[in-house]
Amino acid sequence: MVGEFLDTIVRLDPHGAEFERRVTEVGGIAEREIFATSEMSGRLLERPVRAMTTILGAKAPIARKLLELRRLVEELDPARHSLEAAKDWDRYQEGYAGGQARIEEITWSLGESRDRLLADNAGLGQEERALWTEMETLRQYAYLVRALDDGLERRIDGLAGSDPDRSRLLRQDVLFPVRQRLEAILTQLAVATQGYAALRIVEQNNHEVIRAIGTATTTTTAALRTAVMVSQAVAAQRLIREQLASIDAAAPRTGPAAGAPPDLAALRTAWDKVLATLDEIDAYTASARVAMELTVRELSGQVDRARTSADGVVSAPPPGASTLRI
């Protein structure tokens, strides 16, 4: 294709209509892909911005639910309570009974958020595939125009001695729009590549948040289950002691201190796992937010440069006037 075009363009009259038509064809290379990816760039920029506000932001629903879960878990942390005496355990159980329903409600809400993130990732996958197709086409056009640039420059240099006027006109009226188009394609390809990377970052962040939500809800559910088992053990222990006391009030007490729950260490360990998981989520969210802000800043710069380049392509003068503009 390049060879055929070059053979034709170097023979045509630089002032003729066919010459202008051929140069105009150069200006139309990859036009659809350039404008398609230009429109995509706005949506690509919205993705990480929306992720920062709806997922990673401090006021995002997921962040609020996780913060509320942390507060409830911290309030019910056995390490913050003295549970050796029976009355202390009774107070703790009252607080636990009051918070259990709310914790279960939060974990259910987080599960819904997890499902929405899974659906969002499915949409991201479709956008990635569409963008990848556009990028592959842009790469092919970039290869084509670069080959056209190299071949045209060789032809122009070859004519410099035998036909300097034609060599000068080809350089001004053909080589310039060829390089302008190559710059536009490469700029748009850079934007598309950066946008693709942004989509992958958002997708990966979604995966991490999905995993974190799953871990948080699983460990919290396990901690609640442990609390229930300890509570049942305490109740059974008291029942046995009451029965023994009714038989022989003077019978010596053995085992744990009166009213102390058996396997209290298991309850504390379970709660520690919940707090450690929430700490891990907080640390990941903070680092992901910084990475996303850097991505938005870089993508914004790429988009601005691409729009400037696209505006230049749209407002470029016709080939016949390009010499005057230069």
Tell me briefly what this model is.
Helix content is 85%, strand content 0%.
What does this structure look like?
It contains eight helices and no strands. By secondary structure, the chain is mostly helical. It has one domain. The two termini are 28 Å apart. Mean pLDDT is 74; it is low at 250-262 and 310-326.
Q: What's the pLDDT, averaged over the residues?
A: 74
Rg is 35 Å
- Number of discrete helical segments: 8
Distance between the ends:
28 Å
Key terms for this structure?
8 helices; mainly alpha; 326 residues
Secondary structure: elements and pairs:
Elements lengths: L1 H8 L7 H11 L3 H26 L4 H15 L10 H77 L1 H84 L16 H51 L7 H4 L1
